[in-house]
Amino acid sequence: MQSTDTIALPSTKRRGRRRATATARQQRLAAFLFLAPACVMVGIYVIWPIVSSIGLSFYNWDGMAEKTFVGIGNYVELFQAPTFYTALKNNVLWLVLFLLAPPMGLAVALYLNQAVAGIRVVKSLFFAPFVLSGVVVGLMFSWFYDPTFGLLKLILGHGVPVLGDPRYVTFGIIFAALWPQTAYCMILYLTGLTSLNAEQIEAARMEGASGWTMLWHVILPQLRPTTFMAIVVTIIGALRSFDLIAVMSGGGPFESSTVLAYYMYDQAIKYYRIGYSAAIAVVLFAIMMVYIVYHLRRMLRTES
Fold it and tell me: Which stretches of sequence are listed as region Disordered (predicted)?
């Protein structure tokens, strides 16, 4: 009897292992089936356009005739074009000033994260810019800056041609873009504030922490993932800025407000230089990747 039990026990273990292996295989198959549609969509609409744009940047093509291989000729021309450096300088300006959106969004979120009467109405007012399209925001601020009848003229007492002066146009457009971007960062921080650890906050209060000390040492460390997301989204928004420029200035006056995204559109749509436009897109993509990888590595290092 003892001998039979001894022989049956390894067989039972083998059956259990086979059952566990089959279950794990089914789970992997189910996970693959769930992920497959998303992977196919990413491959078609993200990976393939990136690869095709990189390949297209080595050709001279107007979108209709035969492609002509020019090697790095498009990049050589691009790095010799004065408009490219104007657009790059404006992108850097957008990037620096646009990074004001996360701290402003945090300040508004802290103000709105209160249990007082009527705060929901105030939240909806601050949330409104986020749901407006870029075209609507551009038109509103174009009217605001208008030197003949705009609200800015009424405030200052005299008209200032913000969108017609190369010295002011980029700052005016960035100021307009900060309005909806701050609202977006505010939404991210409001979501993050709802998931704070109440026990840590209560313990900090018992230790006498309040105000700036509470914010810096207790709240902001818990909001680090939200801050990372706000910064990354803001950087991407600054580098791909297009709609407000197209509506408010068209890259002018004298291409003084153009950025890389609008320069790329201008070359492709107006001048039918698809290969040259693809080269601009590749350079813009490379700049985005540098910033995103840097911040991602920094966040992962901090988390570990």
Answer: 1-20
User: Judging by beta carbons within 10 Å of its beta carbon (0-12, 13-18, 19+), is residue 23 exposed, middle or buried?
Assistant: exposed
3-state secondary structure of 67: coil
d(CA 106, CA 124): 16
Whether the Cβ atoms of residue 35 and residue 28 lie closer than 8 Å to each other: no
- State how far the Cα of 36 lies from the Cα of 33, in Å rounded to an integer: 5
Tell me the range of 24-28, 110-114, 266-270 where mean pLDDT is highest.
266-270
Instruction: Give Cβ neighbours of residue 148 (< 8 Å, ≥ 6 apart).
Output: 159
Stretch among 32-36, 62-66, 108-112, 204-208 having the lowest mean pLDDT: 204-208
CA 202 to chain CA centroid, nearest Å: 34
> Is residue 56 within 8 Å of residue 274, measured between CB atoms?
yes
Whether this model's pTM surpasses 0.70: yes
The DSSP secondary structure of 189-201, one letter per residue, reads HHHHHTT--HHHH
Beta strands in the chain (DSSP E): 59-60, 68-69
Amino acid present at 198: A
| pLDDT of amino acid 93 | 94
Start-to-end CA distance of the chain, whole Å, equals 56
| Residue 164 CB neighbours (<10 A) | 14
Between CA 225 and CA 221 the distance in angstroms is 9
**Does the pLDDT at position 2 exceed 70?**
no
Q: Say which residue the tokens 């979108």 belong to.
A: 63
